[in-house]
């Protein structure tokens, strides 16, 4: 297998020294964990929740465990975030002088849950009749404010942090774009849904009008899917490098990302 930097440039979607993800074709990932921690602290610390009944202030973010990331695959952004949070609060009844303290727990902020489904659990440090009133106020009105802030975080993640993840396409015309992505193939010569795909396939410097045939046969097994790939009509001088590049640019990459095995 060729070493890094010695690969066959004919198999690369676009020859670019900056390795930019041209036409957003490849899978890219951007870690949003550190940004998310700073954003959530910015949104919550110092937040005031008030009414004619009580005034409460979020004083700290005691616990913030989890992670967040954005994936770009073929120009589609996929957002992942999962957080377990604990906030500290301090508040009093309007017109009163005694302060009360407690915690707000948010155990399941995730892209899998709608914001209305996110749990917001309010606890009181020392139970007193007045303190319970403040806690009850937080449980009802405060939960809405907390979910609003969580919504701001999710919107910022999708609109602010994700900027630059999808790059402008190099070719504005649809035909040119398709040719840029499928530069090694003349298109499908046969397709049987869920069963078989056949393509005419060539490299640009092969003899003119010389195409090989690549056949993908898809077989659904009991607990996995088996894909058999056969390529015929390869020029003899290109046989070994073609075999090597299938492994280097496709199978090895798929194995690293998904853990799927293959043999040739």
Automatic annotation (TrEMBL):
Superkingdom assignment: Eukaryota
GO molecular function: ATPase activator activity; protein-folding chaperone binding
Gene3D superfamilies (alphabetical): 3.30.530.20, Activator of Hsp90 ATPase Aha1, N-terminal domain
Signal peptide, first to last residue: none
Transmembrane segments: none
Alphabetized InterPro entries for the sequence: Aha1, AHSA1-like_N, ASHA1/2-like_C, START-like_dom_sf
Record-linked SMART domains: Aha1_N
Domain Activator of Hsp90 ATPase AHSA1-like N-terminal: 29-163
Protein name per UniProt: Activator of Hsp90 ATPase AHSA1-like N-terminal domain-containing protein
